[in-house]
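Task card 7
Instruction: Convert sequence to C-alpha cells.
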Amino acid sequence: MLTPPVTPKKPVERTHHGDVYVDDYEWLREKEDPAVIAHLHEENAYTNARTEHLAVLREQIFDEIKTRTRETDMSVPVREGDWWYYTRTIEGKQYGIHCRAPIASADDWVPPVLDEAAQQNGLPGEQILLDDNVEAEGHDFYALGSFDVSADGTRLLWAVDTEGDERYTLRVRSLAGDGATFPDEIAGTAGGALFDQTGAYVFYTTVDDSWRPDTVWRHRVGDGPGVDDIQVFHEPDERFWIGVGLTRSRRFLVIEAGSSITSEASLLRSDDPTGQFRVVWPRKDGVEYDVEHAVVGGHDRLLIVHNDDAVNFELVSVSADDPQGPKRVLLPHDPAVRLEGVDAFRDFVSVEYRREGMTRVAVARLPHDGEPKDDTPHELHFDEELFTVGVGGNPEWTQPFLRLGYGSFVTPSTVYDYDVATGELALRKQQPVLGGFDPSLFEQRREWAVAEDGARVPISLVYRRDLVTPGEPAPLVLYGYGSYEASMDPSFGIPRLSLLDRGVVFAIAHVRGGGELGRLWYENGKELHKKNTFTDFVAAARHLVDRGWTETSRMAAQGGSAGGLLMGAVANLAPRDFAGILAEVPFVDPLTSILDPSLPLTVIEWDEWGDPLHDPEVYDYMKSYSPYENVHRTTYPRILAITSLNDTRVLYVEPAKWVAKLREVGADPLLKIEMAAGHGGVSGRYAAWRERAFALAWLLDVVGAHPSGE
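Output:
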C-alpha cells in the first residue's frame, strides 16, 4: 500500500491582535532548503504513483486535444502601419512564431485570406520577427512579456522570462538591414515595455522586492544595458501597480497607477518623450478611471470611464488640455449596466459593457464636418443565449473596421471585423476543431440558484444533448472563481470536449466577488463580505443536485488561484457536497500571506481582502474562513492541488502546507508541483496539453465518467 510523504512538524508561533496561532508547516516556505525541495519531489512521486491507473486515460485525452487542434495554423493578420502582423504555429513546435508581411496598398484594410498556403508558409513577403522556439531553446520554461515594433517598423523590442517568476530580460533588434541586435539588454523588467512614437526611446517598468511594478524608466535605444536610464515615475504607495502605454492615436504616452479600488493616469505628449507627465485626475480613494484619447470636431478630448458617484461607472468627455475642467456626460450611470471600457478611433467609438450578466459591444460613429450627428452607440446583436464578445486587435487609429472576438460554450473562438459604415459583420476566422466537431450536439443554458441571503446566483451549463438528459443525474464539474471583479464568461475550449464527450456536464457558478452582475456583485463578495463567494458556490452546487443535473457522488469542484481559495473554503464548508475538488495554484493560506507585507503582492491585496495586519476585525474574519487554518476532522472529498515552484503570485508553500494539514486530520489529498513553472503553469503548448490532460483525467475519475462515453 502506498504511503503519503511524512511532513515533519516544526512549530512556529504567529501572534497578531492577541491571537496566537501555531503553524507546524511554515518551514516549507524555505525554497532554498534542500529538505523542502526533496519533500516536494516526494509529493510528486507519491501523486504519480497514486494516479498511475490514469496513465492510459491521460494519454487518450492528450491525443484528443492534439488531434482536434490544427497544429500548423496562423492568427488573423492585424494591420499596423505598412504591415500585416500575425503569429504562426507549426506542428511539432511548442511555441509561436511572430511574423509580418507587407500590405498591398495603403487602402488595403481587409486581411489576407487564411488559405492552406498561408497557414503552411505564411504570407507573401513574410518576415519572421521573433521565433519563440529559438528563444526557448535550452530552457525548461519560456514566456514572452513584452513585444513591440516601433511606429516606423524598423525596430523590435521583446522581453522574455525563462524562470516563471515574471521578471523579463528586455532586448532590442533592428528590423532593417542585417537585423543586428542592439547592445541594449535590460534584466529584471516587468511586462509591457514599449517604444515611444519616434522609436528612439523605450519605456519600461521594474518591480520592487514584493514583485510590484513600481517604477517607469526611459531608455534611449543604443545606450546599452540601462545603467544610465532615466527614472520617469516612481510609485511609493505599496497598494498601487503601475504600467505604461501609448494611446491608439499615438498622440499621448500614458502612465497608469492603480490599486484594487483607486486609479490615477498621467499623460505626456508623444512628440515630447523626454518631457514631464501630467496627472489627468488626481487619485481619490475608491475612484477608478480609464482614459482614452479621441478627436472630436478637431479638438483633443479625453474619454474617461469612471465610478465617482457612479457605482457601475459612467462615460464622460473632457478637454485634453484641461482634463480637470468641465465634463460632458456621454453615457450616464445605469444601475443595470456595468460600463467596462471605451475605445476611440478617428471615425468611431466602441463601448464595452455588461448587462444581465452578459458582455456587450456598441459602436457610435463620430461625425465629420458637414455630416449629420450620430453619436448614439448602437449595440451589436448575437443570436446565442450565452456568449462572450469583446474588442481586441485594433491598433490603427484610422481603421474602418472594429475587430471583435466572439465565442460561447458551443461556438469556437471567432474573429469578426465589424464594418462601421455598413453595420455588417465579416467573419475572418473561426477556431478550427478537427475530427468532425458538430456544434449541434451541444446544448448551453443558464440556471439560477438562490443563495442563503436570497441573492440569485447565475449558473452557466454546457453538455452533449445526446449523452445528457436534463433531470437525469449526470457526472458534473462545477467551476468557480469569484474575486477581483473577474468574470468567468462562457467560452469554448477544445480540452473541455474530452469531458463533454464522456457525458460530463460542465458548469460555471458566477458567484459574488466576480463581476458578472455589476460592481455591487463584486463588492458583496470581497473583504468582510467574502464568505458570500463560498456560500454562493455551495448554493449553486445544491441547486444543480436539486434540479436533477447531478448527484453529490458524481460532482467535482474546480477553481484556480483565488478560485483555489474558493475550493479550499468549500472543502471545509461543505465537504460532503462534492466527490472531489481540483484546486489549481490555490490561495489556501491567505491569512499568513496577507499578514506579511514583505511577501509579493501582499499590500496590494489589502484592498481586496482587507488588512488583517492592522485591523483585528479583518483578522478574525479572514481566520474564520482561511482554508488552511480551518481544516478540521471530517470526511473530506478527494482533493488534488496543483502548483508551481516559481509562482510569485500564489507561492507553492500554500498548497504544500494545506495538503500536510489535510493529511493530519485523515484526509487523502494529492499535491502536484511543477518544478519549472510560474503562476500560469508550464510553458509550451504540448506541455500545457499534458498538464491539462492530467487534471481532466483526475476529474473524470472522480465523477466516474471514464474511460469513454460509450
